[in-house]
Task: structure prediction
Amino acid sequence: MAKTDVAYEILVDRLAERGVDIEKVKERLKNQKIETPSWGYADSGTRFGPYKQAGSAVTIQEKIADAAQVHKYTGIAPTVAVHVLWDFPNGLADCETLADYAKSLGVAIGSVNPNVFQDRDYAFGSITNENPAVRAKAVDHILYCIEIAKKLGSNVLSLWFADGTDYPGQGDFRRRKHYAEECLRTVYDAMPAGMRMLIEYKPFEPAFYHTDFADWGMSYCFATKLGPEAHVLVDLGHHFPGQNIEHIVAFLIDEGRLGGFHFNNHKYADDDLTAGSINPYELFLIYNEIVKAEENPNPNPPIAFMVDQAHITKAKIDAMIQTIMQIQTAYAKAMCVNRERLLEAQLSNDVVTAELCLQEAFATDVEPLLRRVREEMGLDPNPLEAFRASGYWDKVSRERGIRSGAGLGA
Ligand code: PSV
Ligand code: MN
Result:
């Protein structure tokens, strides 16, 4: 037997001892879906300026082509999130044939992200601005994004507001909250049947004193007031250090309001680092809640699993493939928990055994399983090496070179 087969067989036995059915795990891994962001293939930057790379995508066609590579090698990244201002400089005209183009490359357009933060008119807020004309402009842009979503066959409207203030006294919290409620109501009522609104939160940046959507509780509150098609979007980078994100995830699932994720990892602030790069145990614990939700009845709608990362030092497609593999690994490990033993330990207050059940799963080497799953999906067992060997990146970096475009690093 080949070495990899032996490792796989040992894992099968080990998981059977934990009451885990490997065939079911494989099935779930094959059905996993993670959306990658168009802006992750383009140049991005920091407050100190843009970081340009040879080969970065500029047009939406290039971004989709790069995203299609990630899907081609991982098999589980079939959709691409779009950011309207950065991806469609010519508006609806840019969308005409885009769905067909994406389809021809084996992917589809996923969530649609309006941009009501870049225009200088929004310096003092978009939907929370004191000026009704600015609020109306922001709402109009989001309504236009709904039209774009319809054209692209997307049913997820993903909203993030940079709104906030920098200094105490600058704005009135409650008045701003009322403006936001009013504007979101207009948008929500304009959504066609089947469309979902995701409301993201972020405690700081670019506003540094307060943000109008500061935490999950505020997003939850806006969402519940709006109606059943509004949900909370959890961006892993949008929490203060030490915050227990898996608890937030479990709570929202139980309330039926977890709409989706923006995966990434942070060490200090909203660093946009590769998912699992700084704290893989946290990612595992988040997936532990997702796995439990999949296995137990709960009121939550389908979750949109999305990446929100803009790498500045890593090669972009390499980094995105690495990201998908990290998330896939977290999911696989979370399915390796001995659930029966964990429940017994919890019921008998055996804290050490309970913790060990999770640690044992986290320590499980799931590589043989993931390689097997990829082979069964007709993929190379090592997506990153296979992509690198394909020469795609060398080719596009030569052809595209260093250019200017729209986006975070325009
Ligand atoms: C804001 O930091 C954010 O997380 C939002 O999701 C934006 O759409 C995205 O980043 C832009 O990069
Ligand atoms: Mn985000």
Remarks:
- The domain at 33-336 is CATH 3.20.20.150 (TIM Barrel).
- The longest strand covers residues 108-113.
- The chain has a mean pLDDT of 97.
- The two ends are 53 Å apart (CA to CA).
